[in-house]
Amino acid sequence: MAEEVILRFDEVTFEYVEKRPLLDEASFSIHSGAKITLMGQNGAGKSTIFKLITGELQATKGKVFITNNALVGTAQQMIAKEDLSLTLEEYFGKAFVTVPGNIKSQISKVMNAVNLEVPFDRIVGELSGGQQARVLLAYALIQNPDILLLDEPTNNLDKAGIDHLIGFLLTYDKTVLVISHDADFLNCFTEGVIYLDFFTKKIETYVGDYYSVVEEIQKRIEREIKKNAQLEKEILSNKEKVNFFAHKGGKMRKLASKLQDEIEEMEENKVDVRREDKTIREFEIPAQQIVGNIVTIKAVKIIKNHEPLLQNVEIILRQKDRLLITGPNGIGKSTLLRALVNNQEGTEIFPGTRVGYYSQDFATLDYEQTVFESLESVLTEGTDIQEMRSIAAGFLITGDLMNNKIKQLSEGQKGLLSFTRLVLMKPGLLVLDEPTNHINFRHIPVIAEAINNYDGALIVISHMPDFVSKIKFTKELDLGRF
Q1: Which residue(s) pair with 307 in the sheet?
Q2: Cα dist. 75→46, 78, 184, 186, 358 in Å?
């Protein structure tokens, strides 16, 4: 007996702006219990598909069918800013129209499923990025959904967290759709891929694990390029014959007409080869020149058993020093970076240092600003508007995005905007908290090379081993050793 189709898109077109579709006649179906990846470039419409499934957005044309009103639960990329001041119990209460009497029991059950132990009266905003990532999944699970939507679920998770999530998904018997740029994670459980083509706005579906699908797509592109090259050769040959026979008259002219028809048919048979996802241009982060101690850290706050403990350390960073901060989720890594950039007790930054801070929650971005205003606000002497636009274009922040408010950008686009700002700032100190979150995997080697070539002082937190391995660090601070 065939598995039941639980979700179906029937020629769905969606437009934020009239006559500029983000999706064009998208059609696909998903069977109950399937584990499917949504794949595509930043801004291709992956999160939009999630919103069409949840009903947050409505299709411009076509229909989205959910069988028997199946319940949909979404684990978002980030906790909404307005929810950061809530306690865990208050936050989970928002998942219900009427808060059930056994809410604490239900919270315990889903927190156990995501391998997280935190007091229910803890403020959500006080949790680490990795702990918040687990809470987001638990929030979706507490709704007992038939269709689980996961948007970048491995962001901020350490290896233990990712391993637990993979184990959970392998045994989870409900339908799962996941957006992620973590190829190894996806390959562990994916059984099919829905690909969103950024250029044509069309959707393609593939069966198989993630790496098999990526290989299949690449082979198809190579076949299409080869076929087009052969057709182009034949078209050129026929055009030369047409030019020769057209002036001969009689039967020759008829032959020229026939050849012209063949040319038109071959032009129609040429395949619209899918353009590969664009990769950002190679770039350089200019460094403000500073002589002396740029960063001094004398004390760090470690979180043990949900209680802060102050530990004395002695870390000094000068120009070209690179510090990697490590430790498990919840130990206090991001807290240390926030303390540093806010000049809190125990840390010191040399006066006058321009600090380029990449916050994992994009706290440095004003969501109400336009992209243009955000970039203009960090311009330094010697960079004009034209150069600013050129640098932004290298990060795929093109002219059509400049007047958009930052809140309208995808999370991946916010990440690329943040890197554009770092280049324009020319900082003396670069502080990067999970800088690969939300970023298309094609961009990551380019970003790693730019960071490795940066000449200022550098501090990095990252749970992506492949990214970390590409940067030559001079110092490491493991908060887990205290």
Answers
A1: 304
A2: 14, 9, 20, 16, 23
User: What is residue 249's three-state secondary structure?
Assistant: coil
**Distance of alpha carbon 316 from alpha carbon 134, whole angstroms:** 34
Q: Could you read off the pLDDT of 232-274 as tens digits, one per residue?
A: 787 788 777 777 776 666 677 777 777 777 777 767 666 555 5
**Distance between CA atoms of residues 413 and 90, nearest Å:** 31
CA distances for 166 relative to 33, 125, 146, 170, 275, angstroms: 16, 26, 19, 6, 31
Topology of domain 5-213, per CATH?
A: Rossmann fold (3.40.50)
Kindly compute the dihedral angle of the four CA atoms of residues 324, 329, 331, 332, in this order, to the nearest 10 degrees. 70
Supply the pLDDT for residue 277. 59
Helices assigned H by DSSP within 290-370: 333-341
Residue 23 in 3-state DSSP? strand
Could you read off the pLDDT of 136-192 as tens digits, one per residue?
989 989 988 999 999 888 887 878 888 888 888 888 889 999 988 777 888 888 888
- 385 neighbors 344 (Cβ within 8 angstroms): no
Task: Give CATH 3.40.50.300 domain extents, the chain.
Answer: 5-213, 295-481
Q: Kindly tell me the sign of the dihedral angle through the C-alpha atoms of 58, 59, 62, 66.
A: negative
Strand order in the sheet with 347-349: 307-317, 295-304, 347-349
CA distance from start to end of the chain: 57
**305 touches 105 (CB < 8 A):** no
**pTM > 0.70:** no
CATH number belonging to domain 295-481: 3.40.50.300
